[in-house]
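We give the chain.
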Amino acid sequence: QVHLVESGGGLVQAGGSLKLSCAASGTIFLVDIMGWYRQAPGKQRELVATFTSGGSTNYADSVKGRFTISRDNAKNMVYLQMSSLTPEDTAVYYCNRDQPLVARTYWGQGTQVTVSS
């Protein structure tokens, strides 16, 4: 079992920055894939960014060049640095941990990010 806790959301003006953090506890594997997803009102949850244990990153086209995902395996943390935020980035952001070794996926409770124009 894995428990994920996000933090760092809030209200920010357009053009501003926020950094989200996700702390993981429980049964952790180094090969886990960490990611961030978001869900805006009335929309489906969508991938924002992922970070594999091998160091590969993947970003949604809408956030490329503005968001950066990073992870600290020693602390079981994953981060999402967001800059040049726009109102379209307003959503609940969810931390995700995919464990291919045991075929399980876990989600955090989500943190609200609101970008005002």
About this structure: The first strand starts at residue 2 and ends at 7. Residues 11 and 49 are 21 Å apart (CA to CA). The chain has a mean pLDDT of 95. The radius of gyration is 14 Å.
